[in-house]
Write a structure and sequence with these properties.
Length: about 280
């Protein structure tokens, strides 16, 4: 199920930051920003208030040192952290365009010193819930303030993770050369669980035939029958353990079992048939 509000994230602002997506058929994506500030609780509060005051709210504000996570608005609505690309409203491209402001500086990529915890894991789980793959379609995040790839054709189509530096119509270079491997390894995607296999039910061995349970019979089927009768509570008829030779103890134990089923007459004569065998072998 796609996550709109991340469990455990603080609510920032009034929860209304944008609107419906203009190009919802484009691939779902996440966009990483850096706030070009310090981190910690004071910075978290100050940056959050600044973004609200300026009307530049992303979806998410994240502190990589304390694992603090705040959310300005639902993930299925647009944010306000990107500039438009001409007539294209960049914030509204994609099924979702989840934008994350990280309390960090682009010249010092946060993945080198961060301390991701359960809130980061919840963030990544929410991003993945929208079908955003663990890829960077425009390649590895560029070092700040180096050259940035802003491929409009890729941006308008492909799903995945992007940097602010990749967004067409924008001139920012953040969040710097963050490490994609470290980003995804900090919150590994859950592997699909294999389908649950029903426990195999032992098959009832077929009835071998009445001839194996008569006077003079000496075979393994008699032993199996006697062992089943003992398991069912009829061991009192045996002075010694069940064996392969058919005897009166086997017949009396079988008859007692048959009568316990409510059978009478020839159905309870002490000689097993298919029905007696099937019930004993369950």
């Amino acid at each position: 199920m796609s996550v709109r509000w991340i469990p455990g994230a603080e609510r920032l602002g009034d929860g209304s930051i944008g609107g419906a997506m203009d190009l919802p058929k484009a691939g779902p994506r996440a966009v990483w920003h850096s706030t070009e500030s310090g981190d910690g609780d004071d910075a978290f509060k100050s940056v959050a208030n600044y973004l609200i005051e300026k009307g530049n709210e992303p979806h998410i504000l994240y502190d990589p040192r304390t694992d603090r996570l705040g959310q300005f608005g639902p993930l299925d609505q647009s944010a306000r952290a990107l500039q438009n690309d001409g007539s294209t409203r960049t914030n509204r491209v994609g099924k979702v365009c989840i934008q994350i402001e990280v309390l960090a500086r682009a010249k010092s990529p946060f993945t080198k010193t961060w301390r991701p915890g359960p809130n980061f894991a919840a963030l990544m789980a929410a991003i993945r819930s929208w079908g955003v793959p663990d890829t960077f379609p425009m390649g590895a995040p560029p070092a700040y303030p180096g050259g940035s790839r802003r491929d409009r054709a890729v941006w308008l189509v492909e799903a995945g993770h992007y940097c602010h530096a990749n967004a067409p119509g924008n001139n920012h270079g953040d969040p710097g050369a963050i490490d994609p491997k470290a980003l995804f390894a900090a919150a590994p995607a859950e592997k699909p669980k294999p389908p649950t296999q029903k426990p195999s039910v032992p098959k009832t061995p077929p009835f071998p035939g009445a001839q194996y349970f008569r006077a003079g019979a000496n075979n393994a089927h008699v032993t199996k029958l006697g062992q089943a009768l003992v398991r069912k509570g009829y061991g009192r008829f045996y002075s010694v353990g069940p064996g392969p030779r058919w005897g009166e103890a086997d017949r009396k134990a079988t008859q007692a079992f048959q009568r316990a089923q409510g059978w009478t007459g020839s159905d309870a004569d002490g000689y097993p048939g298919p029905s007696t065998w099937a019930r004993l072998m369950k």
